[in-house]
Amino acid sequence: MEKNIAVIKGDGIGPEIVTEAMKVLDKVAEKFGHKFNYEQLLMGGCSIDANGVPLTDETIARCKASDAVLMGSIGGNTTTSPWYKLPANLRPEAGLLGLRKALGLFANLRPCVLYKQLSEACPLKKEIADKGFDMLIMRELTGGLYFGERKTEEVNGVMTAIDTLKYDENEIRRIAKKAFDVAMQRKKKVTSVDKANVLDSSRLWRKVVEEVAKEYPEVTLEHMLVDNSAMQLVKDPAQFDVMVTENMFGDILSDEASMITGSIGMLASASMNETSFGLYEPSGGSAPDIAGQNKANPIATILSAAMMLRYSFKMDKEADAVENAVNSVLENGFRTGDIMSEGMKLVSCSEMGDKIAEFV
Ligand code: IPM
Ligand code: MG
Asked: Domain end: 213, 232, 260, which one?
């Protein structure tokens, strides 16, 4: 098969980790007889430097014309980078949010798996880590606080800022359906996370999720408050299968979930619309402190590329090959600095990419 992939390397460690994912994809193409054409596009800080804006119409149009988008990470150091002197709508993150919205990517799938080889890197107590876990966070990505009306103004001489958390029932229904659909392919349990003891948006969320649940009698649904969920994630992560939640809660909980897998450098993600089109990016940020040092962990990006093969290209065998290669490399003791532990072999970002490509 021939596929056109839009590639946004982005800022910070983005270019390094995406280069490794492309190395692995090229190996997949060679081994399975496919052809992947890459078109490199700018978004985020690098687009600000080149075009004065974090996202251009050209980048949106080229992404839409592609079969899938592979992305690294965007943004810089928020206290020192000149990008953060710009008005909020011209900063790197505005580019990513604008692209998610323009492509209609409302469903963000973040699988969090504790690899048994990495239980040493898991910061939880041994008896919890030894149980392992395998969950998927289904984060709503184009609504809620991220996209509600916001403003900062002076009210009676006092500076006041407002952000709005708004969801309509259709936005909740479509993400709930995605969650139940993936639960059907997994352990058939959905935990819907909200703050229904305080927020109206959460009360509507709960009601709509319950309606959707009726269409999936085989799936067990439970509701959990977001504060309790944060606690349960470190207390007993093995209880979760699919966790579905609104944009901001999902942003926060997925960072927490990534940490208990050993490192945020392990967490892949897929952002999908109603079809099989998607944008694939690691859940972590641009890590400007280690950018350009060939130290970053490319595994999350490589696993995101595997998700692209599986979800957008329907190449299950190929996706399995990538995931198995990651497993084998960990099994053989290769580690980047973030997941290093005693007795293992420390490798650079590009060596990790080489090793994974070799095992494909
Ligand atoms: C993420 C990131 C983004 C988000 C930032 C960079 C805007 O934290 O993908 O989780 O908050 O969605
Ligand atoms: Mg985040």
From this structure: 260
The pTM score is: 0.94
Give me the domain span that covers residue 61. Answer: 1-106+269-360
Atom from ligand 1 closest to the CA of residue 73 = 6
Q: How many domains does the chain have?
A: 2
235 and 127 belong to one structural domain: yes
Determine if ligand 1 sits within 6 Å of the CB of residue 171: no
Q: Final residue of a domain: which of 260, 288, 320?
A: 260
Ligand 1 pocket member 118 (CB < 6 A): no
Same domain, 101 and 139: no
319 burial via Cβ count (<10 Å: 0-12, 13-18, 19+): buried
Residue at 330 is within a domain: yes
Long-range own/partner contacts, residues 29-38 (CB < 8 A, 24 or more apart): 31/321, 31/360, 32/315, 32/317, 32/318, 32/321, 34/1, 34/2, 34/3, 34/315, 34/318, 35/1, 35/2, 35/3, 36/2, 36/3, 36/5, 37/2, 37/3, 37/4, 37/5, 38/5, 38/7
The residue annotated as part of the active site, out of 146, 216, 280, 311, is 146
Residues 244 and 294 in one domain: no
284 CA to middle of ligand 2, Å?
A: 7
Identify whether residues 288 and 334 lie together within a single domain: yes
- As given in the structure block, the two tokens for residue 338 are 């973030």
CATH of the domain at 184: 3.40.718.10
220 in the same domain as 281: no
pLDDT tens digit sequence for 16-73:
999 999 999 999 999 999 999 999 999 999 999 999 999 999 999 999 999 999 999 9
Query: What are 204-248's pLDDT values in tens digits?
Result: 999 999 999 999 999 999 999 999 999 999 999 999 999 999 999
CA of 204 to the centre of ligand 2 (A): 24
In this structure, is residue 112 part of a structural domain? no
Which ligand lies nearest the alpha carbon of 140?
1
E runs forming strands in 44-200: 68-73, 107-113, 134-140, 150-155, 158-163, 189-194
| Ligand 1 contacts CB of residue 96 (under 6 A) | yes
